[in-house]
Automatic annotation (TrEMBL):
UniProt gene name: leuA
Subunit annotation: Homodimer.
Species annotation: Cohnella boryungensis
Pyruvate carboxyltransferase domain residues: 5-269
Source lineage: Bacteria, Bacillati, Bacillota, Bacilli, Bacillales
Name of the protein in question: 2-isopropylmalate synthase
Keywords assigned: Acyltransferase, Amino-acid biosynthesis, Branched-chain amino acid biosynthesis, Cytoplasm, Leucine biosynthesis, Manganese, Metal-binding, Transferase
Cofactor(s) listed: Mn(2+)
First-level EC class: transferase
Length: 390
């Protein structure tokens, strides 16, 4: 039986930390509604202690989708932040408090200038306080991938004993590499299962080395039950693991991972475009899954293969992510097969071998001049050719 992976989307919290990506409350609600259509399990709606505007936005998201999606929001391990989260999400049908506190030496010593014991106690006290408000509490061990393993584990053990129901392991600065991160998750998972197997093990990967998707998949392979990601991979610095990439990785390679999500993948493209439109941040054209070229084929060898059988060059169908169909870009590298297909798709007869060859040569001349040949160019080529011949 395929294992279900819980998907938390943090586009509205970590994603919104991207410079220039400020969203107003209406835009946030619109994105939250689309995330509900996408069927994410949990929406991280914001960081309510950061401003009155963020607090209000979290409340509005709860009002609009909080009856059917788990809503969480972020708190530092201090009472005021936890109170803000509680007040902003308490009307959701399944609210979750998310507490974050660092575990790496650099966080403990440089950021807090406190002892390791004192920081661990701060985390325990925060979880105990949050548990007086709500039953579901996630604890994030910030900078986990650069933490001393035994201290990381002691912290996890202590906060689980204090009542944390989810442990989130962040690769906060995108420092981890897949084998190492997978191994970290495997070791934590083994110990956590012995301690309390009802606790959910989660990961949150950043993309500073371009490895966020790979690290997330490696963590899943090694026992993580929950992933945190964002639409279009938005997020602090180089961003977070991209939801669409991880979800499609699991779908296309379900046999390899033995896992699935409940994401409605046909909503992926629409969600990506909505987030891009509202944040004003373009999706790079060659971005996996949702980039403009993700299902576009331009080389003649590929186009010929695809026309024989789509599986020759396609590992997933464009329709699976909500795109209409694959796109053949006609260029000077497109061969006769692709050009003939384009002519026939427009309802024209390609003619006999000699007529077609003459048309193809004209196409090559045009393609050399224009680089890309569109439907209207094909139309012009065919009609002007037949006028010249007639
Ligand atoms: O990157 C990080 O460590 C975070 C935590 C709040 C989970 O965003
Ligand atoms: Zn983050």
């Amino acid at each position: 039986m395929s294992r279900k992976i819980i998907v938390l989307d943090t586009t509205l919290r970590d994603g919104e930390q991207v410079p220039g990506a400020k969203l107003n409350v209406y835009q946030k609600v619109e994105i939250a509604k689309q995330l509900k259509r996408l069927n994410v399990d949990i929406i991280e709606a914001g960081f309510p202690a950061s401003s009155a505007g963020d607090f209000h936005a979290v409340q509005e998201i709860v009002r609009s989708v909080g009856d059917s999606v788990t809503i969480t929001a972020l708190a530092r391990a201090v009472k005021n932040d936890i109170d803000s989260v509680y007040e902003s999400i308490k009307l959701a049908s399944n609210p979750l408090i998310h507490i974050v506190l660092g575990t790496s030496n650099i966080h403990v010593e440089k950021k807090f200038n406190r002892s390791k014991d004192a920081i661990m106690q701060m985390g325990v006290d925060a979880v105990k306080y949050a548990k007086t408000l709500l039953p579901n509490v996630q604890y994030s061990t910030e900078d986990a991938s650069r933490s001393d393993f035994e201290y990381l584990w002691s912290t996890i053990e202590a906060v689980v004993r204090a009542g944390a129901t989810m442990i989130n392991v962040p690769d906060t600065v995108g420092f981890a590499v897949p084998e190492e991160f997978g191994e970290l998750i495997r070791k934590l998972n083994d110990r956590l299962k012995n301690l309390d197997d009802s606790v959910v093990l989660s990961v949150h990967c950043h993309n500073d080395l371009g490895l966020a998707t790979a690290n997330t998949l490696s963590a899943i392979k090694n026992g993580a039950d929950k992933i945190e990601c964002t639409i279009n991979g938005l997020g602090e610095r180089a961003g977070n693991a991209s939801l669409e990439e991880v979800v499609m990785g699991l779908k296309v390679r379900e046999l390899h991972y033995g896992c699935h999500t409940d994401i409605r993948t046909k909503e992926l493209l629409k969600t990506s475009r909505l987030v891009s439109h509202l944040t004003g941040l373009d999706v790079q054209v060659n971005k996996a899954i949702t980039g403009e070229n993700a299902f576009a084929h331009s080389s003649g060898i590929h186009q010929d293969g695809l026309l024989k059988d789509k599986n020759v060059y396609e590992i997933m169908s464009p329709q699976d992510v909500g795109a209409e169909s694959m796109e053949m870009i006609l260029t000077a590298r497109s061969g006769r097969h692709a050009f003939k297909n384009a002519v026939e798709k427009m309802g024209f007869e390609p003619g006999d071998a000699e007529q077609f060859e003459s048309l193809f040569q004209k196409f090559l001349t045009l393609a050399d001049a224009k680089k890309e040949v569109y439907d209207h160019d094909v139309f012009y080529l065919v009609t002007s050719n037949s006028r010249a011949e007639g």
